[in-house]
Inverse folding.
């Protein structure tokens, strides 16, 4: 990984870990702050709402701030919010710290993605995005388990201290080696007006919808991965964390492969990966009771899930062109969270109707194929537009010069 991308990846890893780690230490937080487990769970809900609702507003408000100072300011606030979380004496203070952390999430992630794309050579933007997004993979694979490990030995506050420390390192690296690519600041491209104008772009709109639909397809099933492994696959509870680590390794590989595929053929790769994701889930619904097959399918699932991520971000960067894509990326991150929330709710509804895990997984496959159909439709539109642009416009034939009649021609 080029060193210029490393601080951005570390920023994304810190942000991703802060979002996810609370789920692993909720019981300890509830016990220490003397609140119910359901009230402690609102720390996750508040964070998600902050990302979806407040994140784009922060992006708009900071649209004229040059990106390096913006990164430094956001990482400073993010670091401070995690220090506040680590010191929080009450539930209300911890909730405040979580909301402060959440409002930096969208813009931080969006700016890292936009800067990574601008640092890349032409045609390799998706690979650069995928390298930065490795931070999110690592947060998924390592962030939560390490947070739980720290909580077991040093208490839940140590998880927030560790995130604050990582954030401080990322901030120092950005300050030491700021992104040197020719990235126009948002103010140079029109600020708020330019950011909002990009949202009228149909390609950007469909890419955001595609993100929400794809994530709904993924999380309808993945929300219930624990019972899928234990109740359906017959694995012992004690092995689940190790099995999920294996799935996470698959997602890491898928993310890097997805970036390279998107660089070569953006929309065809999105269609193909979503088709594989749907097929994998369909096979899981049919044969998930065979333990070894379920494990293989879950590893493929993790790879396909993260292989689609660089392409979705690259599609928005391409749709925005030379405009101002930061708000579009921020809203796409909101769409990511909306898709997760809908998928979790939809899968829960199906289980509430006693339809079983097979139906939940099958529904996840259908949503993934629906996302594939939307991507395929966009691919057809792109190819039609390319063919239209390649056909030369008809040119009127040159007029034949009129030869004036001569005196000789008019005589017999």
């Amino acid at each position: 990984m080029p060193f210029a991308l490393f601080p951005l990846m570390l920023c994304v890893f810190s942000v991703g870990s802060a979002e996810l780690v609370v789920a692993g230490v909720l019981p300890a937080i509830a016990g220490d702050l003397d609140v119910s487990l359901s009230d402690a769970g609102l720390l996750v809900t508040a964070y998600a709402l902050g990302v979806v609702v407040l994140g784009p507003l922060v992006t708009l408000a900071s649209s004229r701030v040059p990106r390096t100072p913006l990164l430094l300011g956001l990482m400073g606030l993010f670091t401070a919010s995690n220090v506040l979380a680590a010191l929080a004496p009450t539930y209300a203070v911890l909730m405040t710290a979580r909301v402060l952390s959440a409002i930096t999430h969208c813009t931080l992630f969006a700016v890292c993605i936009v800067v990574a794309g601008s640092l890349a050579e032409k045609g390799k933007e998706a690979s650069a995005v995928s390298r930065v997004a490795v931070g999110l993979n690592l947060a998924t694979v390592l962030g939560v388990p390490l947070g739980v490990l720290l909580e077991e030995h040093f208490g839940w506050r140590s998880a927030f201290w560790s995130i604050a420390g990582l954030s401080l390192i990322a901030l120092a690296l950005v300050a030491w080696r700021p992104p040197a690519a020719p990235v126009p600041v948002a103010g140079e491209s029109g600020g708020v007006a330019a950011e909002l104008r990009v949202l009228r772009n149909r390609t950007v709109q469909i890419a955001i919808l595609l993100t929400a639909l794809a994530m709904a397809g993924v999380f309808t099933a993945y929300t219930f991965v624990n019972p899928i492994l234990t109740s359906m696959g017959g694995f012992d509870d004690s092995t689940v964390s190790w099995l999920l680590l294996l799935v996470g390794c698959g997602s890491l590989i898928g993310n890097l492969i997805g970036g390279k595929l998107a660089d070569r053929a953006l929309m065809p790769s999105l269609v193909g990966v979503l088709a594989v994701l749907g097929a994998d889930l369909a096979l899981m619904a049919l044969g998930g009771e065979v333990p070894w097959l379920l494990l293989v399918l879950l590893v493929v699932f993790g790879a396909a899930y993260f292989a689609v991520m660089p392409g979705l971000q690259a599609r928005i960067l391409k749709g925005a062109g030379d405009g101002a894509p930061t708000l579009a990326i921020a809203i796409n991150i909101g769409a990511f969270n909306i898709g997760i929330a809908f998928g979790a709710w939809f899968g829960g509804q199906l289980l509430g109707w006693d339809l079983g895990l097979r139906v939940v997984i099958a529904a996840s496959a259908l949503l993934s194929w629906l996302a594939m159909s939307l991507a395929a439709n966009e691919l057809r539109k792109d190819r039609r537009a390319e063919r239209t642009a390649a056909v030369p416009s008809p040119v009127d034939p040159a007029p034949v010069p009129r030869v004036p009649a001569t005196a000789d021609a008019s005589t017999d």
